[in-house]
Amino acid sequence: MKKGFFTFALFLMTISAIYSQSVIGKWKTIDDETGVAKSIVEVYEKSGKIYGKVMDILREGHKNDVCVGCTGANKNRPILGMVIIKDLEKDGSEYNSGTILDPTSGKEYKCYITLETADKLKVRGYVGFSLMGRTQYWQRVKN
Q1: How far apart are CA 110 and CA 97, in angstroms?
Q2: Backbone angles phi, psi at 33, to 5 degrees
Q3: Total of domains in the chain
Q4: What is the share, in percent, of the chain residues with pLDDT greater than 90?
Q5: Phi, psi of 31 (to 5 degrees)
């Protein structure tokens, strides 16, 4: 009985460690200019690619904002629930070859993400090549 419990506990700790070292999960977005938390984005995998969806907007008075600057299907759509990270593919320890949408401006950028630590995600949006862009660091949301 004790051996079974120990094995089960070890299994749960292993799963927890693996999960915490993945980009998958909920992340608090932090404005790189002000340091203020803006939203919660859920990063998930679908068909072998990584996506990110706005699950909550943390700034008061902005929960019902729409993407005025967006084009196409996202134009004037609510930011809450919007998929802002699309089609990232795993490349070693980095996920790249996809895009990120800035719902404040409506602009879409090339993107890569990588874990800095188990609870810190580096998110880089850029135009052309990665030197011409902006980096944010998101914090993992603990359940």
Answers
A1: 7
A2: -95, -40
A3: 1
A4: 76
A5: -65, 125
Provide the residue range defining the domain that includes 76: 2-140
State the pLDDT at residue 10. 38
pLDDT at position 3 is 62
Q: Is residue 103 a contact partner of residue 83, using CB atoms and an 8 Å limit? A: no
Q: Would you say residue 102 has pLDDT above 70?
A: yes
Q: Which residues contact residue 87 at a Cβ distance below 8 angstroms, ignoring those fewer than 6 apart?
A: 49, 50, 51, 97, 98, 99
State how far the Cα of 87 lies from the Cα of 80, in Å rounded to an integer: 19
Per-residue burial over 28-65, b if 16 or more Cβ lie within 10 Å, else e, is: bbbeeeeeeebbbbbbbeeeebbbbbbeebeeeeeeee
CATH of residue 106's domain is: 2.40.128.520
CB 48 within 8 A of CB 93: no
Over residues 11-23, the mean pLDDT reads: 53
Per residue in 24-57, pLDDT (tens digit) is 999 999 987 888 999 999 999 999 999 999 999 9
Q: From CA 64, how far away is CA 78, in angstroms rounded?
A: 7
